[in-house]
Specification:
By secondary structure, this protein is an alpha+beta fold. It has 3 helices and 6 strands; from the N terminus they run E-E-H-H-E-E-E-E-H. Pfam families: UPF0231.
Length: 132
């Protein structure tokens, strides 16, 4: 799984992942973004439960669902399509709607994302949303 982080033209962090893991980048961009509190909670939970196969954690966001276990991480897009409504002769392209990886790899991505976001914030390169 290859990935890179950059700052978009709007000043927000942006993650790009290799084919087969694109949804992980979309999840980082759209659901996690610059929420360092949520990011820290995820990292703490993973560290406390690593290698406990019976452990599971779910996080449903606006667009994506995260499912963690003691060994794996899965992200799926909640795209709202009703597969029953799609005619039989058409196939739904969902290659960018689901990705999975090992929990250790997912944790490494989160650590890298946190370092990137913190560095960009310290440089003033990322504009955080204003509190409401």
């Amino acid at each position: 799984m290859d990935y890179r982080f950059q700052t978009s033209i709007t000043g927000q962090p942006e993650a790009r992942f290799s084919m087969g893991h694109e949804v992980l980048g979309h999840w980082l961009n759209d659901e996690l973004a610059t929420d360092l509190d949520l990011l820290q909670r995820l990292l703490v939970s993973i560290a406390q439960h690593r290698n406990h196969p019976a452990w599971s954690y779910q996080l449903t966001g606006r667009e994506y669902h995260l499912q963690l276990s003691g060994t794996d991480a899965e992200i799926s897009a909640g795209n709202g399509f009703c597969e029953e409504a799609i005619p039989e002769d058409l196939e739904l392209y969902d290659m960018e709607a689901f990705a999975s990886c090992g929990l250790e790899d997912f944790e490494a991505v989160l650590v890298d994302w946190k370092a990137f976001v913190e560095e960009q914030i310290s440089r003033g390169g990322i504009r955080l949303p204003e509190a409401v």
